[in-house]
Amino acid sequence: MDGRVLRTVCGNFATGVTVITTGGPDDFTGTTVNSFTSVSLDPPLVLFCLHQRSRLHPVLRESGGFVVNFLTGRQEPLARAFAGRDAGEARNVPHHRSPEGLPVLSEALAFLVCRLIGNYDGGDHAILLGEVLDLGVPGHDENPLIFYRGSMRVLEDEPANT
Ligand SMILES: Cc1cc2nc3c(=O)[nH]c(=O)nc-3n(C[C@H](O)[C@H](O)[C@H](O)COP(=O)(O)O)c2cc1C
Fold first, then answer.
1. Whose CA is nearest to atom 6 of ligand 1?
2. Residues 64, 58: Cα–Cα separation, whole Å
3. Which of 2, 62, 93, 161 has the highest CB neighbour number within 10 Å of its CB?
4. Topology of the domain covering 21-146
């Protein structure tokens, strides 16, 4: 199996774009992720896949939690900044702390604050399972940023059933 072909074929599956943030009381970091999915409503569970060499792993272990921030169509520069190895510029992004002390991007479309409850082997990625503790939709009037065929785009179309 050629990984590039697999990635190209999977690129036909349109997804949203998230930034996973995590950190302790005095620091915060994040990375851009499109492998988010909701898993269970009762209990409330979500997952994302993180490559095994991500610098986020030790921070996740230490903090014991993460925030899934869904990006708006205006946040493509932020998605690019958090996808670089040096997310230094991204540190200046407006954010606040959840009641659990985890960093939430204040201008996200929506966010889920999660406790890390599982870390499973997924080949060159880890499958990270989180229990949702808190949530919100600060950007409820905004269009989402989507990832499709290797490009980020803004979803502006009307629903298909109207
Ligand atoms: C649209 C988009 C989606 C991405 N999705 C994922 C993902 O689901 N899992 C992942 O490990 N990396 C994903 N990446 C790559 C990481 O953002 C990037 O490799 C990472 O920030 C660099 O290494 P780090 O994890 O140490 O920060 C994605 C990048 C982009 C631009």
1. 33
2. 10
3. 93
4. Pnp Oxidase; Chain A (2.30.110)
41-47 long-range CB contacts below 8 Å, 24 or more apart? 43/131, 44/131, 44/132, 45/117, 45/129, 45/130, 45/131, 45/132, 46/112, 46/114, 46/129, 46/130, 46/132, 47/127, 47/128, 47/129, 47/130
**Mutation choice for ligand 1 from 7, 34, 82, CB with most ligand atoms inside 8 A:** 34
User: What is the tens place of the pLDDT at every residue in 72-102?
Assistant: 999 999 999 999 866 666 778 999 999 999 9
Q: Which residues' Cβ are closer than 6 Å to ligand 1? A: 17, 31-35, 49-51, 54-56, 79, 83, 85, 125, 147
pLDDT value of position 27: 87
CA of 31 to the centre of ligand 1 (A): 6
pTM of the model: 0.95
